[in-house]
Amino acid sequence: MPGQTFLETVDVGVDYFTVTGTTQSSRQKVWNFGMDIVAQEKHRGNIRRLWNWKCYQGFNCGAVQVGTRDDSAIVRVAGGLAREHYRKAYEVCTNCSRVDAQVTVRADRDPQKLIHAEYNRALKWSEGFDRKPAVDIHLSNNGSATAYFNKRVSDRFGRIYDKGHQSQLPVMEGCVRYEIEFKNDVAMHHLKSLATSESPHQTIARDLSQFFKFRHCQAKWNPAGRQTLVLQMPAADRERQLQWIAKSVRPTVERLIADGELQRVLDCLGLSEFTFKRLVKLDHQLRTGRLQKEA
User: Fold this and answer.
1) Which of 6, 61, 97, 198 has the smallest CB count inside 10 Å?
2) Tell me, what's the pLDDT at 294?
């Protein structure tokens, strides 16, 4: 539209998918596909754990879950991994029961005000129907708001929320995310559309624009413009554990060591034997001259 001002598009893409394989061939392909992502997540430092859901048995690692049961195999992937692997998911699956797509914009005002404004427009629009379409808003005691469109079981379930508040990522500060969950047959159709598209980010931007503008939201991004992709990879399990140790354990350890309790700290942490072996090795290296810088 001439003269229309668009908000900056910070991120756009697939954010989640669930795919299954129900034939003998596709079950094996889906399982192998999921386990390849598990290996990738494990290499990144995430912990591989057993996973059970609706009679599926398999593994959960980072942002991926993979499982199998008598009639099918399943893979569920979230976040940046979903954007990375959705094309391959379409190639190996026989069905996609859910795929989420999102457009994230930098708000031109306080994100909460933008969310409430979009909600109020959609609420006013819904008043024109005898059977009013579902438009709702959830207010959290932490000050954030999420607007919802349609019912959660709908084939298209939309939401708008403060991505900066939700993610706590500096790059997302002041950003609002528009998102749709596509389910059932609509999900498979949408996954195929994206996997076979030459410009999937433009397909997502256009489809989400149509959904929210139909409900009289402004959705002020350019549905035809080139989008800026920001791939977000959450911290791996190992990194989160190390951050927790540094923040929660280290101060206590430092206080105990300052009080002369180094040996007891090592004993409590199970490091005494490890430290002794390291000292023996260091002593051996010193005696044999292996630590000398010069021959």
Assistant:
1) 198
2) 44
Contact 11, 230 (CB under 8 A): yes
Q: How far is CA 159 from CA 5, 145, 218, 260, 277, in A?
A: 23, 10, 14, 55, 56
Task: Find, among 65, 73, 88, 84, the residue nearest to 233 by Cα.
Answer: 84
Q: Which amino acid is at 209?
A: S
Q: Answer whether 135's CB lies under 8 Å from 215's CB.
A: yes
Q: What is the dihedral of CA 248, 252, 254, 256, to 10 degrees?
A: -160
The H or E element that residue 217 is part of is none
Q: What are 241's two structure tokens?
A: 């554990």
Residue 276 has a pLDDT of 64
pLDDT exceeds 70 at position 289: no
Contact 179/158 with Cβ under 8 angstroms? yes
Specify the range with the lowest mean pLDDT, choosing from 26-30, 140-144, 177-181, 284-288: 284-288
DSSP string, 136-169: EEEE-TTS-EEEEES-TTSSEEEEEEEHHHHH--
Contact 160, 119 (CB under 8 A): yes
Contact between 30 and 48 (Cβ < 8 Å): no
Strand arrangement of the beta sheet that strand 95-106 belongs to: 49-53, 56-61, 64-69, 72-78, 9-21, 95-106, 175-183, 156-162, 145-149, 135-139
CB contact burial 34-71 (16+ within 10 A = b; e otherwise) = bbebbebbbebebebeebeeeebebbbbbbbbbbbbee
Q: Kindly report each contact of residues 242-250 with a partner whose C-beta sits within 8 Å and lies 24 or more positions away, as own/partner.
A: none
Per-domain residue ranges of the chain: 9-214, 237-288
Measured CA distances, 130 to 119, 123, 148, 154, 291 (Å): 19, 13, 19, 19, 84
Token pair, residue 11, equals 């991120």
Does pTM top 0.70 for this prediction?
A: yes
Query: 114, 120 in Cβ contact below 8 A?
Result: no
